[in-house]
Amino acid sequence: MYNDLKERDKAVNWHPYTQMKTASDIIPIVRGKGAYLFDDKGNRYIDAVSSWWVTLHGHAHPYIAEKVSEQLHVLEQVIFAGFTHEPAVQLSENLLKLLPENQNKVFYTDNGSTAVEVALKMCIQYAHNKGLKKTKILAFNNSYHGDTFGAMSVSSRSIWTQPFGEMLFEVIFIDVPTKENLPEINEIIDEHLDQLACFIYEPLVQGAAGMLMHEPEDLSALMKYCRSKNLLMIQDEIFVGFGRTGKLFATDYLIEQPDIMCFSKGLTGGTFPLGITTCSNVIFDSFYSDDAYKTLFHGHSFTANPLACTAALASMELLLKEETQEDIQRIYNEHKKFAKELALHPNIKNVRQRGTILALELEITQETSYFNKQHERLYPYFLSQGIILRPLGNILYLVPPYCISTADLRYIYQTILKALEL
Ligand SMILES: *Cc1c(COP(=O)(O)O)cnc(C)c1O
């Protein structure tokens, strides 16, 4: 049944972020269990990147499967304009309880990029509804917020966005905050303030840029300045949310509260596509009106799909369990020991960690980039060793599901050490 999947795939499928002509062989996966994926030949792989950062509790988790299966027999989908359902109400209630107290309302979409689109529209229309025209956005250098046009616009310009350059809207890019550069950043904010609709940022870890990290105190200081200037803040927790940083949300490290937050990826434990944009009553109230023109005209066919909401409820239940919190701590501790061991390694330029996220920057002579040759060398090597690690250029990173065993973690570390000697 599976033996010709590769050929059939090649005939009909176009894969994401893939140059189809030069791509190496793809691997048909036939099943998953816990931290493992199994291919059509019976080979086992440790999913050290949580299948593009989404899987929290492992593949084919029986509890999530059971809950979704029950829901599938009750209500699989209903239009979310004019109707509601238990899973969406329960999920919003449960999530808001875990977020900063100023997060009051939940808007559903179906992936990370659309969660960002909604957040941007909320901020731009917030100004519009008040009779103001604010069309510029403030964002970090090296940012990544998704692949739809709005999300791409607020992402750092790169080879990914190059063909669309002239069609992206105007964004003021600033460096991530440090102890030193804050006065400079504040000046840039002041200069553009009357035209800025909002500031959007990945808190603490810039994932797609290669797991670049900044400090909570510095981000808090920047947020404090934005707050003092009434500049709306969109905190993109799509990658870092749901335990990745060692706390439930990156916001738990911060003093200031954002106006809007975006979630996806780990939201459903990695089982269904679902996006959430939460906002404060300050935002919500600017749309709340007898005037039809002040409506947020946005929605997707599958907004708040009951199956996806059910999966998210089950995943969050698992996440809050003591065992899972201990797993997160265990991964943090193991990563930390390994990071210490690596710090002195001659082939390592930089090691950084935030919670369960570990990144190693390999020493190279050329400029660091996504197209760095290290990817071509290391990716197949790790696969041959039964590990899925997708280096971002010369940056190797681990974002494992929380169920990964200590033995498997240590096996990955040993294999990395071997790869460094190759
Ligand atoms: C992955 C990601 C997105 C986009 O989410 P998709 O579901 O892939 O559209 C947005 N922001 C951040 C920080 C991400 O890591």
From TrEMBL:
Homodimer. InterPro entries: Aminotrans_3, Aminotrans_3_PPA_site, BioA, PyrdxlP-dep_Trfase, PyrdxlP-dep_Trfase_major, PyrdxlP-dep_Trfase_small. Its main location: cytoplasm. It comes from the Bacteria. This is Adenosylmethionine-8-amino-7-oxononanoate aminotransferase. Pathway: Cofactor biosynthesis; biotin biosynthesis; 7,8-diaminononanoate from 8-amino-7-oxononanoate (SAM route): step 1/1. GO terms for molecular function: 2 iron, 2 sulfur cluster binding; adenosylmethionine-8-amino-7-oxononanoate transaminase activity; dethiobiotin synthase activity; pyridoxal phosphate binding. GO terms for cellular component: cytoplasm. It holds the Pfam family Aminotran_3. Its cofactor is pyridoxal 5'-phosphate. It catalyses: (8S)-8-amino-7-oxononanoate + S-adenosyl-L-methionine = S-adenosyl-4-methylsulfanyl-2-oxobutanoate + (7R,8S)-7,8-diammoniononanoate. Its EC number is 2.6.1.62.
